[in-house]
Structures are given as structure tokens and as C-alpha cells.
Amino acid sequence: MQKPNKRLQGQICIVTGSSSGIGKAVAMAMGTEGANIVVNYHSGKEKAEEVAHWIIKNSSCGDAIVIKCDVSKEDEVKQMFEKTIKEFGTVDVCVANAGIQIDHPLHEMPFDAWKKVIDINLTGQFLCARESIKEFLRRGMREEVSKSLGKIIHMSSVHEVIPWAGHANYAASKGGLVMLMQSICQEYGPKKIRCNSIAPGAIKTEINKDVWSTKEGREGMLGLIPYKRIGIPEDIGSVASWLASDESEYINGTTIYVDGGMTCYPGFTTNG
Ligand code: NAD
């Protein structure tokens, strides 16, 4: 058996919400590692196609296609997996990345704002994980590409452990991901399925542009980051590629914080 030259060569990776931000960087990083990528988008087909074209141009062996799907809709998620399997044969890696924020003080939070965030950030990740596991179990081991039956990476947040006033729906969705991810690990680890989360800190993307685009906002963010640098999507892309590869094979059921130290309570630096 010939050993692949690239860490994800020959693997098929679905990255949800990958027409922008962190998902885009993850898709590009995995593409340059030789994977065939499904660039999932919800809106903005052109941006998704640009990501796919970039991967096709810059990867020596990987391919890329775009698939429209709202991850909060069961039928659409099922169709995304069916199309992927039809096009590429199977799925080896799913990065459940799509996520949104709709912020309100809790006592004023419309039910729709609660429901939409939970539907996309938590239920959407459940639906993608479920379809991934079904496919991993159906097709069996592909020893030529990986030592694991399949890999699921949930895009969580430091707010899976840091409470967030004014953002209770978002924090609750990410807190819920911890138990989803760990329960999957416990249930399917024996089948050699790996399930982990990545918890980004403050990463410059559209989701938080209103904060980092002002001097005051940037300074506020930096006050929360011991490493004194706001993150960029590529910081997450490189970790996700490694976490999907056999180099991290023994990592299962854990969250990798990629946050410049945000979870180390920088407010206590000067004795609290
Ligand atoms: P982003 O807004 O650029 O990306 C979110 C993506 O999700 C977009 O491409 C959007 O089109 C897609 N999306 C939204 N609703 C969807 C749906 N129903 N179906 C499919 N796709 C949908 O922001 P980002 O920062 O790149 O966010 C990506 C993930 O990273 C999210 O889960 C977010 O919670 C998480 N995260 C981001 C940060 C940060 O600082 N940027 C920090 C922690 C966690």
C-alpha cells in the first residue's frame, strides 16, 4: 500500500458554512492537505465557488465541489450527504462549522432568536454528525486513507465554558456541543470514530466584525487575550487539518482551545 504524501490525501471532507471566515480557512487548509472538499454554503454561491476554485487550483491532488444546504433542515442535510456520496463515494471527515449569533438581553430575547441559534448551532451540528456516523458505519474502514473509521470536528467556542451575558442563546448552543461531542465519543469510539471540538477565541470574521472594526472594540478584545493578538481564520484552519489527520489519532472526545489564552481568565492578571 502506497503511503499518501499529504496528511488528508484521498479523504473526503464536508465543511459546513465554508464560503466565509473560519469554515473557508478550514476548507482551504484541508484542500492543500490533499482532501476532496465539499464547500457547503447557505447563502452566497459565488463566494463558495471562489473557495472551491481556489482549492482546485492550489491542491496538487484534491478536488472541490459546492453544495447549498441549510444545516438546520433535516432533509437538506440528508441531501448534502447523498450528493457528496454520489460525487466522491463517501465522507471521511465532517467539520460542523456553520454558526450564527443573534444577540439580545435575555429578558428581551425573542423566541425566534433563541430557536434560530439553537437550530443552526446545535441541531445543525447534530444532524451533520448523525449523517456522518451513518455513512462511516455503512462503508467501513478505509485503511488506505486513515486509521479511523471517520472524524467529526465540531466548531464550538470558548463560550462552551465562558458564560456570555447578552448572548445566552449562543453560549447555550456551544455548551450543548460539549455533551453532544463527548457523548458521540463515548458511543462511537469503539467503532474507531473520532469526535472532537475546536473552541476558537476571538477570530477576525464577519460574525464579530462590529467589534474588531473599531479601535475601542479591538482594544476590548485584546484585553481578553493573554497572547495580545486577535486570531485569524488560518489559526483554526491549521489546527482543524491536523485534528482530522492521523497525526492526532489518539485525540478523542476533547475540545482544543485555539484562543491565545482567553480561557485563562486574563482579568485576574493583576490580582483580580
Ligand atoms: P462567519 O459568519 O464568517 O461564518 C459562519 C458561516 O456559517 C457563514 O458562511 C454562513 O453563511 C454559514 N451559515 C449560517 N447559517 C447557516 C445555515 N443555516 N446553514 C449553513 N450554513 C450557515 O463566522 P465565523 O466566525 O467564521 O463562524 C464560524 C464558526 O466559528 C461558528 O460556529 C462560530 O460560532 C464559531 N466561532 C467563531 C468565533 C470568532 O471569533 N469568529 C469564535 C468562536 C467560535
CATH architecture: 3-Layer(aba) Sandwich
Instruction: Output the radius of gyration.
Output: 18 Å
Structural class by helix and strand composition: alpha/beta
Total strands: the figure is: 7
Number of helices: 8
Shape designation: globular
Give every kind of bound small molecule, once each: nicotinamide-adenine-dinucleotide
Q: What is the helix content?
A: 40-55%
CATH fold-type name? Rossmann fold
Listing every helix as H and every strand as E from the N terminus to the C terminus, the arrangement reads EHEHEHEHEHEHHHE
pLDDT averaged over residues: 96
InterPro entries: NAD(P)-bd_dom_sf, Sc_DH/Rdtase_CS, SDR_fam
Protein name: SDR family oxidoreductase
Family: Belongs to the short-chain dehydrogenases/reductases (SDR) family.
